[in-house]
Amino acid sequence: MSEQLGLLPERLLAHLELTLAALLVGLLVAVPLGIAVTRRRSLETGVLGVASVIQTIPSLALLAIMVPTLAALGVWAETIGWELRSIGYPPAIVALSLYSILPILRNTVTGISGVDASLIEAARGVGMTSRQRLLRIELPLALPVMVAGVRTAAVWVVGTATLSTPVGATSLGNFIFSGLQTRNFTAVWVGCLAAAGLALLLDGLIAAVEVGLRERRRGRLVAALTVAGLLGLGTAAASFRVETPGERPLLIGSKSFTEQYILSELIAGWVREESGRASEALESLGSTVAFDALRQNQIDLYVDYTGTVWATLMRREGLPEDRQQVLDEVRAWLHGEHEIELVAALGFENTYALAMRREQAAELGITTIADLRRVAPRLSIGGDFEFFSRAEWKALVSQYGLQFREERTMDSALMYQAAAAGEVDVISAYSTDGRIAALDLLLLEDDRGVIPPYDAILLAGSKLARGDPAIVESLRRLDGRIDEARMQRANYAVDERGEAPRVVGERLRKELLAAP
Questions:
Q1: In a domain? residue 448
Q2: Can you give the pTM of this predicted structure?
Q3: Which domain holds residue 300?
Q4: C-beta separation of 183 from 498 below 8 A
Q5: For the segment 196-232, what is each residue's pLDDT rounded down to a tens digit?
Q6: Are residues 185 and 217 in the same domain?
Q7: Quick one: three-class SS letters along 326-359?
Q8: What's the pLDDT tens digit per position in 166-196?
Q9: How many CB atoms within 10 Å of residue 213?
Q10: How many domains is the chain built from?
Q11: CA distances in angstroms from 304 to 214, 264, 286, 317, 334, listed in the order given
Q12: Within this chain, do residues 20 and 126 fall inside the same structural domain, yes or no?
């Protein structure tokens, strides 16, 4: 608990920064747009329709869409000397701002439209201009309804901001994503409770401002505005950094599962100790987000797997004769196409594998994937979020003729428990996961060699490789140093013993340095 609470101020502040920025942009867009709609009713269907369509897009999908969109805009921005980041706060703020627009826009239109027509006529009768009617009659009377929309938007944005973690924006979602993956439910609770508390605080402050304005309670209004102002100023001050060349720490990305958290912490510690350069882990990135971020030098290092590069990025369907050929072709493609340096093959393979309860496999007489074919129509299979859309799954279905009774997509952290509890019969396991042994699961042999090799490889962006080759050379000492058993023990320490990835990564680093 103490470790999670130590991380809370930084993540809470980052979450508040995202929320306030998105709400401010939402207000600046939605209120003028809502006023324009009330002046020209022909705009209402189109404007509210577009805002409603945006709201129907799943929040995680909208955040993910922002990454390639900003990356494409970033290419154009470079031609005029601007730098536009496609991961981190920019995609998160754009997506969250879009989510905040609908409730503010709809309530602005509803509030102004609901003003008594006789009051408008009376204002015209005494000679008020359209601007005067808006500022003195319509907006003051519509204020309670408009503020209700802002309150709704604030709560929505606070909740949705927890999903910003996979696009590289620090938030309270870091507690939730990493906590679910490492089964650290204390972290999950800290993230959830902090987000709920922040939502209640902002909702209360906005309500207090509205009551103070409506009922002309000067003391309440001043108090609420003072607290809101202090929150805004504190967030802005903490977010403002004066950067000098070379000051930015090296960023080590990680995907959203235990092994990646451990390895990113190991590499960050290795860089700090070997070079003295500041470094930090950027956790829970989406798989393609991590690669795109490295390609654009928005992160400096991360660990990927040859099978992922081969099947997902290179879009290769067939398999070479051996693992070394895959490694060589992946190395050549990364360097030739993207100037990405394959620094080291860490020494272990974490491949996709089909797994099931050992007892059930024995009862059904299953040891290989080929054996699975005859009973698959009676069984259910669980996979992580991307497994059933990956080339590996399509190849398994094609080559083995697999047809399951049910396919269930779930968070990778929950698959193993689901298999152990009999909720699903087969899962798409990761071969180095410590929970395989802990839960007595059996990895089925890929007897036809359909799944490509998944050697863990450390990748460096072109900027780091050219600008600081000494760091890259020091990291080459990791080549072949981590075997499968060592990685399984490290994963087990986090998943089953509840140790923090940072602690396990640091211990693994020291073990490697001490080993001959």
A1: no
A2: 0.78
A3: 250-349+458-514
A4: yes
A5: 999 998 888 887 777 766 666 666 556 655 665 655 6
A6: yes
A7: HHHHHHHHHHHHHCCEEEEEEEEECCEEEEEEHH
A8: 888 888 988 888 887 777 778 889 999 999 9
A9: 17
A10: 3
A11: 57, 11, 12, 19, 12
A12: yes
